[in-house]
Amino acid sequence: MQAVLGESGEFGNPSSVTHAYGRAAAARVALARGQLARLLGAQPDELVFTSGATESNNLAIQGVARAQRASPGHILTSRIEHKSVLDPCAELERQGWSVTRVKPEPDGRVSAAAIAAALRPDTALVSLQLANSETGMLQPVAEVAALCRARGVLLHSDASQALGKIPLDVAALSVDFLSCTAHKIYGPKGIGALWVHPAARARLRPLLLGGGQERGLRSGTLATHQIAGFGAAAELAGARLRADAGHLGELTLQLHGRLQALPDVFLNGTPGNRLPGIINFSFAGVEGESLLARLPGIAVATGSACMSASAEPSYVLRALGRDTELAQSSLRFSPGRGTRREDIDAAADQVIEAIQSLRALAGPLPPPQAPWREGRAGQRSQGTEAIFHIAVSQAGVVTAARVSIYGCPDTARTAAWLVEQLPGRNLGNLLPGAPTDWLENLQIPRAKLGKLLVLEDALRNCLVD
Fold it and tell me: Which of these is catalytic: 148, 180, 306, 462?
């Protein structure tokens, strides 16, 4: 990439082949196209470079819909696809298309039988990922391809997670379209590709119109430096595939063994039929955001709704049958080439310590006895549960307080602060201000006000014990 971007590098427009600068850039693009094609078992001219898997998925799904001149038809996909598949399908649904979203089995895989049962005479496209991005579970794409071939239905697969982790052969998969992206194999961000079967090209229309680059399927000047990086990453991934897969498999197995020693830890998916580099656990009795806050230096993803713009926990884990509490208390681990066995042990130690600490914080309090009063509010399934106990003297003054809290770090911090404030207060003036005051005193984001209202409710319930 540096060679392409340098002052004396191949920084010409690869579409301008009338001069030497453009021809040098075009040669660099051709080299990268060949490198990626070899990783996919494809021909170079079957690849369309895009800005990433999101665009590739949109091009496959919306491009097929645009090419269908008749009335809107039917698209079949699964509930656990990436949002860049689900959202284009939802948009087509608003335009009059019919969309079926097949539910996965509890093991995290979509059955070919379920796809077969959902196929219709007007089905234009099936979109099924090769591997799930949250659980790592492999999907039966080749089996589904046989069903689609028998009925003349196009098949698209998002292979972003699988690229470079397992051997890929588009001919063996028998798909019509396959999406991938560079940053999943240590390449640059902002560059991806869509593989298009030659026989399916006529049934695809572009989303971007202009100069007609990429054989008319994706207009726009090619990003030569990013394409060069994608090609180099693909070549390295192919050369290292077996070693990388073995290394990642050993690390995930090691992590699985360490974390399964804890009680109430649930593997999302099954040990088999999965990528070697992704593993996902749900931990009962802890809240996802609080768990992440206790894991400094570990880059993991959580299913907690607090950590996203969504009001719901991971839709993938919910589709697998996990309840809301378990879905939002999940962690996805994805070791890489540079991860060492000692890194896994260090991460496992942190996770185990954090879980034990949070479970103790949210654990049951001793049964309240006179003069103790109890007040509780909230539900774990909603992300926050608080139980306060206050000891009250005959004069109606709080002499001691304790709390069991399940919630985000800000909620837990506020609950601990309240326990410090309560002793010495009388029942007629129990609350030290309002939740809005607590936000200001503790510098908590206003978005967390709803969670602090749960604490207020729990304290008020102490008064009506």
Answer: 306
Of 238, 258, 273, which residue constitutes the final position of a domain? 238
Reply yes or no on whether 148 is catalytic: no
State the DSSP code for 365.
Answer: P
Contact 374, 389 (CB under 8 A): yes
Per the domain annotation, does 366 fall within a domain?
no
d(CA 448, CA 401): 23
Assign residue 221 the CATH number of its domain.
3.40.640.10
CATH of the domain at 421: 3.90.1010.10
Examine the domain organization and report whether 27 and 173 are in the same domain: yes
Last residue of a domain, one of 322, 337, 361: 361
Stretch 136-141: mean pLDDT, rounded? 97
Residue 435 is assigned to a structural domain of this protein: yes
Q: What is the pLDDT of residue 307?
A: 47
Instruction: Tell the residue number behind the tokens 């798909």, with chain if given.
Output: 175
Segments forming the whole domain that contains residue 305: 241-361
Compute CA 392 distance to the chain's CA centroid, rounded to the nearest angstrom.
48
pLDDT digits (tens, 9 = 90+) for 100-135: 999 999 999 999 999 999 999 999 999 999 999 999
- Is 98 domain-assigned? yes
User: In this structure, is residue 367 part of a structural domain?
Assistant: no
One domain, residues 404 and 432: yes
Q: What is the pTM assigned to this prediction?
A: 0.89
**Mean per-residue pLDDT, 442-461:** 95
